[in-house]
Amino acid sequence: MSDSLARDLVAWRRHLHSHPELSFHEFETAAYIEQQLRDMGLSPRRIAKTGVYVDIALQPGDSMVAVRADIDALPLTEATDLAYKSQNPGVMHACGHDGHTAIALGVVRRLLALCAS
């Protein structure tokens, strides 16, 4: 893994961790994901109000890969003093979805790199 990707994985996860949203209210989370995908040169679209979908164009006839991550947080109060702790009182990513979403963004970046080579 490149140092750049490792740094971005940490940054994505920390951003998502500090801005948790409850299920079906992940509007800012979805916007953040969309922006990261646009920054990778993709054209994401919103589905089901808070879902994000993107196609990565491959060669005709190539196999398809689906990547999915939950993005919702839990109604819990974070009891840490971490620099990236939840900024939303009573809502926390205690379930790992912030990490799963960061990993999904990393997978997309690696797929794009593989497609370009």
Keyphrases for this structure?
single chain; 2 strands; 117 residues; mainly alpha; 5% strand; two-stranded antiparallel sheet
Describe the structure.
The protein has helices at residues 3-18, 27-39, 97-116, and strands spanning 45-47, 51-53. The protein is mostly helical. Helix 1 runs antiparallel to helix 3. The longest helix has 20 residues, at 97-116. The mean pLDDT is 93.
What does this entry show, briefly?
With 117 residues, this protein is mainly alpha-helical.
Largest sheet: 2 strands, antiparallel
How many DSSP-defined strands?
Answer: 2
Look at the helices and sheets and give the structural class.
Answer: mainly alpha
Instruction: Please tally the helical runs, counting DSSP H or I stretches of 4 or more residues.
Output: 3
What fraction of residues sit in β-strands? 5-15%
Radius of gyration: 15 Å
Based on CA inertia axes, which overall geometry fits? Answer: globular
Strand order of the largest sheet: 1-2
What low-confidence regions span 5 or more consecutive residues with pLDDT below 50? none
Proportion of residues in helical segments: 40-55%
Distance between the termini: 16 Å
Secondary-structure element order, as H and E? HHEEH
Mean pLDDT: 93
How is the topology of this model organized?
Elements: H1 3-18, H2 27-39, E1 45-47, E2 51-53, H3 97-116
Antiparallel strand pairs: 1-2
